[in-house]
Amino acid sequence: MSEQFRAVPVIHVGRGSPLGESERSDLAAVEEPLEVRLHGTPFAVIMRTPGNDRELAAGFLLSEGVIRTAADVGAVEHCRHPDHPDVHNVVDVYLIGEAASSLDEHLRERRNVLANSSCGLCGRVTIESLRTRAAPLPIAWTMTIDAAAAMPDRLRERQRVFEGTGGIHAAGLFTPDGVCVRAAEDVGRHNAVDKVIGSMLLDERLPLDRFGLAVSGRASYEIVQKAWLGGIHLVCAVSAPSSLAVDLADEAGITLLGFARGGGFNVYTHAGRLPGV
């Protein structure tokens, strides 16, 4: 697997750095392109942090509507160049069943998109199209205020690459009692979400209707969209949600929390999953 961080030269200015001793190195999170292919044909390029590439591809294709369940996936394989066996930046996905029958349609409609680390789906999926793919989620379980407030700190404990770089996002899936069962890191928070959802998809554990999702940084429309398509009932963000994220969470029946830090949070939608709020 490619490295997830590497040393880069840096000059520290101020903050007590003595003159003549300011040149040193820092660790930076690695960002590299991943090409996702369908049956050998290029479909998309995603800027990501290497690691969990198969899961990232599966989660991305779920959010793009190419697949719906693990039953749609025949194989997800890294492609290795015969002259460069160390390169792992191409993943080829082979579809089966109904998903395979729609392959040509997906390839015709898909423009090759360079999804940068802050963009996500570039607006390809609208709220209107989501209504045809996912029903609003009922309130089927509750989470205590203490368990919800602890999610960011428990996610932080799983951020190994962040410890070394300070420049990477994370996403984690939590049970209603606040246990983190799956986590991933990436330079793009939406990629981290795709990785954790994709890993559960490949394990045939969708829908994720017994889980909440915690993300570092803000809650964007793409994050809530991916949660909805994965069947996730609660989204907790360390920073602010966007207005469209709030609108979509309200429509989806998702409990949306923001500014979750220091033992507190804001509740923007569907507070019924949090008794006592």
Task: Kindly describe this structure.
It is a single chain. The protein is 29% helix and 28% strand. α1 packs across α7, α7 packs parallel to α8 and α8 runs parallel beside α9. It has nine helices and 13 strands. It is an alpha/beta fold and 277 residues long. The chain has two domains: 95 residues, Ubiquitin-like (UB roll) (Roll), CATH 3.10.20.10; 129 residues, Cytidine Deaminase, domain 2 (3-Layer(aba) Sandwich). It has a six-stranded mixed beta sheet with strand order 9-8-10-11-12-13, sandwiched between helices. The chain has a five-stranded mixed beta sheet with strand order 5-6-3-4-7. It is globular, with a radius of gyration of 19 Å. About 5% of the residues have low confidence.
- Under CATH, the homologous superfamily of the largest domain reads Cytidine Deaminase, domain 2
Multimerization state: single chain
Strand content: 25-35%
Q: Please give the CATH class of the largest domain.
A: Alpha Beta
Largest sheet, spatial ordering of strands:
9-8-10-11-12-13
Q: How many distinct helices?
A: 9
CATH architectural designation of the largest domain: 3-Layer(aba) Sandwich
- Overall shape: globular
The parts where pLDDT drops under 50 for at least 5 residues are: 112-124
The overall average pLDDT, rounded, is 84
> How many discrete structural domains?
2
Return the CATH topology of the largest domain.
Cytidine Deaminase, domain 2
Radius of gyration from the alpha-carbon trace, in angstroms: 19 Å
C-alpha end-to-end distance: 45 Å
Helices and strands, in order, run as: EEEEHEEHHEHHHEEHEHEHEE
Number of strands: 13
Q: Helicity level, as a percent range?
A: 25-40%
Major sheet: size, sense and barrel closure?
6 strands, mixed
The secondary structure category is: alpha/beta
